[in-house]
Specification:
By secondary structure, this protein is mainly α. It has 17 helices and 13 strands. α4 packs across α12. Bound molecules: heme C (HEC) (2 copies).
Length: 474
């Protein structure tokens, strides 16, 4: 059976085995099975049912953004690079740079027109804003792109991946939403958008939303040894709850990779080069060929972003380096006010086992940028991959990460984040917690978080409320 056929069979088989079996059983056994099924399916105990009795996500924390500022202790030259990088990060790209003197190189295919359009909330460098800029991007400068059904004005910024090709081979790559066809700065280019409707019908479409970049420089400076020591800690407690965890690693140098939803990328610089080409379509010195080489849609020499040999200072390096410098020096978020409730919530977070994956802090090593040295990074992540069950699995393989494995999402800045989980399926923290749990199927094992979600469900309503208040204080 092809991989795609397997996946489709899987999707079809998803929830049918219990009901079919039960038809064959006598009434007492049926009642027993039903009770067992409810016990074993933590999703059934989410908000709105008896056991969680109404603890509510307090919603996005208001007030000033607790993020977006540079780390303390930068030299004036370093600060100049941070600011130059910020300017580039916000620059709207056009195809030939002819529109409003913007940067050039957009397309032929793209998901958005600048880094900051996607990394925006609650400040530049963050996550998806409340109004999705992809709607306006679709028709900017005369383009007539269809807006796919999974992109909505008040929904999250999304990019799409197809786990399999239409002929059933492993794919997994990003398929950009839009093309430059019919834009005023792309005369003669004529290419079609991917067929998202067909992909959706085949069950071969998954989404990723932007991860926040605050504190990225600190994440780079946490040593592999620190990550591995943390992995080996609290073994007994982890074991009793069913929590494992493994690093994703570079296939070439063997070190721990840590950026992206599956910890698939090694560094901010690699991510910059890749994002510039994948999200905006700008070729650069790290990713130097166009992803779509259709004649008639090539408007610039490559790489479109390059070292500016004739300039000086912060203007000399390529955009990719300037993006990297901005992100490297972007400080970790500042949490909101604590209260007796958030303090109790923080204790529960540790007690019930959330902190076994969402490690509250790790300390950086020695960096060439002194403001990044020996800093306590309050990231709430172990930076490891965990099996998260069929409910969250997206069937995409990245490095050592299997289709059901994800990096523990760092929770710093969570209080001001709008959309949650890799595909942005919910804006509600209660649903986010419940989505952590699912029982295994033929393809994937049970979620490593099942035991902890079970503990959460056993808390009283007021304890759950403390926990949610704590999460929104981050
Ligand atoms: C269309 C929206 C979009 C645009 C434009 C975009 N990104 Fe992202 N960014 C994403 C998504 C989605 C992810 C998560 C990708 C994944 O892991 O699958 C991400 C993740 C990242 C990460 C990883 C951070 C972490 O800790 O996981 C970095 C770094 C990053 N982007 C940098 C950039 C830079 C630099 C630019 C501009 C060149 C950019 N992005 C443009 C959507 C976008
Ligand atoms: C087994 C490890 C593990 C445990 C235990 C765990 N998490 Fe997570 N958490 C993850 C992973 C992995 C993700 C990302 C999953 C995805 O996006 O598909 C995540 C995502 C989240 C998110 C969404 C963050 C975002 O940016 O979208 C929140 C909130 C969260 N966890 C809170 C909690 C709370 C609260 C608990 C305890 C009740 C908990 N987690 C227990 C591994 C864990």
């Amino acid at each position: 059976m092809s991989l795609k056929a397997k996946a489709l069979a899987q999707a079809g088989a998803h929830s049918s085995s219990h009901p079919r079996l039960s038809v064959l059983l006598l009434l007492p056994a049926l009642i027993f099975l039903l009770v067992a099924a409810v016990e074993g399916a933590p999703e059934n105990k989410g908000s709105g049912t008896l056991s969680s009795g109404g603890a509510k996500d307090p919603g996005v924390r208001g007030g000033a953004p607790g993020a977006g500022t540079p780390i303390a202790g930068l030299s004036s030259n370093q600060l100049a690079f941070f600011n130059a990088g910020l300017t580039n990060f916000e620059e709207i790209d056009s195809v030939t740079g002819s529109i409003n003197n913007t940067g050039n190189g957009l397309g032929p295919r793209f998901n958005a027109e600048s880094c900051a359009q996607c990394h925006a909330q609650p400040a530049v460098g963050g996550t998806s804003p409340s109004t999705n800029p992809q709607i306006a991007d679709a028709t900017d400068q005369g383009a007539d792109n269809q807006v796919p059904s999974f992109i909505t004005l008040n929904g999250p910024v999304r990019e799409a991946r197809f786990p399999y090709t239409f002929t059933g081979q492993v794919d997994g790559g990003v398929h950009d939403l839009f093309t430059i066809t019919d834009r005023v700065d792309a005369p003669g280019c004529n290419i079609q958008q991917p067929n998202f409707t067909e992909a959706a019908q085949l069950g071969d479409l998954i989404f990723r939303i932007p991860t926040p970049l605050f504190g990225g420089g600190l994440i780079e400076e946490i040593s592999d040894a620190t990550i591995l020591a943390n992995m080996s800690s609290n073994q007994q407690q982890k074991h009793s709850l069913g929590i494992g965890g493994q690093p994703n690693t570079s296939a070439n140098d063997g070190t721990i990779t840590r950026f992206g939803w599956k910890a698939q990328n090694k560094s901010l610089e690699v991510f910059s080069g890749e994002a510039y080409n994948i999200e905006i379509g700008v070729t650069n010195e790290l990713f130097n060929t166009e992803r779509d080489q259709t004649p008639g849609c090539q408007f610039n020499a490559t790489p479109e972003d390059a070292t500016n040999f004739d300039l000086d200072g912060t203007a000399l390096p390529s955009d990719v380096i300037r993006f990297k410098m901005f992100m490297t020096m972007l400080d970790q978020p500042t949490p909101g006010q604590s209260s007796p409730s958030t303090q109790r919530g923080a204790q529960d977070f540790t007690q019930i086992g959330c902190a076994l994956c969402h490690t509250p802090s790790m300390t950086t090593g020695q960096s060439t940028i002194s403001g990044l040295s020996n800093v306590q990074a309050n990231l709430y992540s172990d930076l490891l991959l965990h099996h998260m069950g069929p409910n969250l699995a997206d069937n995409v393989l990245q490095g050592a990460a299997a289709g059901d494995q994800f990096r523990t999402a760092p929770l710093w800045g969570l209080g001001q984040r709008i959309f949650f989980l890799h595909d942005g399926r919910t804006a509600d923290l209660v649903q986010t917690i419940q989505a952590h749990a699912s029982n295994g199927n033929r393809q994937y094992p049970s979620s490593e978080a099942n035991g902890v979600v079970n503990n959460y469900n056993k808390l009283t309503t007021s304890q759950q409320q403390d926990l949610l208040n704590f999460l929104r204080s981050l």
